[in-house]
Amino acid sequence: MSGRAKVFPVIIVALGALWLLQKAMPVDEPDDGMAIHEFGRIPVVYQGRVKPLDTLARNTMRVISDRQVFYDNSKSDPKGEQRPAIRWLLDVMTSADAAREYKVFRIVNLEVLETLGLQPRLKPTSKKYRYSVDEIASGLPALHEQYSKAAHLAEQDSDLLDVYQRHILKLGNHWQLYARLHNRAIPLSVPPRSPQEQWTSFVQATAHVNHGGTLDPVAASFNNILNAYTDHDATAFKHYVLEHLANIGQILGRAQMAKAVFEVFFNRFAPFYHCAALYLITFVLSAIAWLVWAKPLTRAAFWLMALTFIVHTFALVGRIYISGRPPVTNLYSSATFIGWGCVVLGLVLELIFRLGIGNIVASVTGFMTLVIAHNLAGDGDTFEMLQAVLDTQFWLATHVTCVTLGYSTTFLAGFLGLVYVLRGLFTRSLSKPLSTDLARMIYGILCFALFFSFIGTVLGGLWADDSWGRFWGWDPKENGALMIVLWNALILHARWGGMVKARGMALLAIFGNIVTSWSWFGTNELGVGLHSYGFTEGRAFWLLLFVASQLFIMAIGILPQRLWRSFAVPQNQKAARGDLPLANSVES
């Protein structure tokens, strides 16, 4: 191997590491000297858990505006520069005039805009689909009227709501969230000083003073922070922020304060987002390696993916540290964990076979699952509180982890099947040795899939017996888990019985993608059953599109083998590839 071929993978990995390091570096405070990022470290309680204000700001902005930053289009900054969510939160909580001018409310329904008396804003700019408080204010009476009607109808039967009414409810809920922040009714910012007390909001703390009590020192320092910000006094603002952190730290302790600081870093670093980008780059390198400079590009892709996998693992461990829970507690965390499982198995396949196929399936599944997770994060806090029946560390660490690994392995087998079909149909590279190796990969992964899905389903039955007093209840989610077990068993038995060979096993594995996606997402779309805990509204279209794509690939996969490019290789090229006629080896 030449010197360039040896150095190239090192350069690629070094560039990836430097890029990640740059993303993890601390950010500078704004030019006005306000220590807003220090302010973001302050722990509060909202939606049932302790979190830093930075997380509250980002999640609220994501819910209202569908992004974690905003563009300052106020009179004080006509350039419209990008600002962090914590700046928006401070302006809202201090009733700053600029907060009313920020275009942060995302409204895409034309009928809702007509109700508010607004014109569509569709140009691809920072203002696209987004409107300010001042712009919405004139239409608030009409919004309240339509919101009340939609809410009353939803109480009777939410299925009766049309698209317009759903968007009215969504905007109304967003407006209420904004109003509660503006009035400081949320979050709970004053911690309890004894086990008998609870967290209280700033409004509750000041109401206590109005009834003859004394203002809690934590509430007093928080009030000083907001007053200093209103007065644009950067020195006083930073002083009171540090004072407040010290006051609240004495109550919560070092461990809780350290966790809040780490969560702020985790938010800023956004490791899953950057891992998705690196997985995409890994796929590009792997795809190019099938055309030119195969070994150096394949090695570069492998080591870059290994680096990304380390960061992916760090992100999972970070979430465990922040939440104090096992890695999978909701749909968002299941997506990040499924991708992780696919990547680790893809790396193992690449280490064993060294064909570049492990790189391809690992990078594709890693990228796709993290994109799914990113879209699932739009509904708010990804560390949502668990329902009481789910609040058990043991079953979360056993049943849920095993079932999710069953998803990972079944998906990986299905994507290997996609590689088999697409490579055989559209390229001349599916030689007999490659076909044999791909079949071995699919078979081995399916064995793992059957093991994890079966053990996970049995553990789920034990958990159900412990929680609900019955082992099995034909709940949609339970049925979905059983379908995965039965389908994996069906493929393996078909292979053992000689009913299918390599191509048939690949096609059956592709259908496993449909079975698994239904159990993962489809059962939640039904909105019934004891397991409908996910937030998947509006995503049925993407699920159906994925199912259609898998059915289409299966349909072209059963075309006569004479139409496959790999089967149409001239005899002299087959001899050059060193294989026998493929029709004798992979006919299903």
Write structural notes for this entry.
There is one protein chain. The chain is mainly alpha-helical. It contains 22 helices and 8 strands. The chain has helices at residues 3-24, 36-39, 53-65, 85-93, 110-116, 133-137, 140-156, 163-182, 202-210, 217-230, 234-252, 254-269, 271-289, 294-323, 331-353, 357-376, 393-426, 432-468, 476-496, 502-526, 540-557, 571-577, and strands at 43-46, 49-52, 69-71, 82-84, 105-106, 130-131, 188-190, 200-201. Strands 1-2 form a two-stranded antiparallel ribbon. Strands 3-4 form a two-stranded antiparallel ribbon. The protein has a two-stranded antiparallel sheet with strand order 5-6. α14 (294-323) runs antiparallel to α15, α18 runs antiparallel to α19 and α18 (432-468) packs parallel to α20 (502-526). The longest helix has 37 residues, at 432-468. Mean pLDDT is 89; it is low at 581-588.
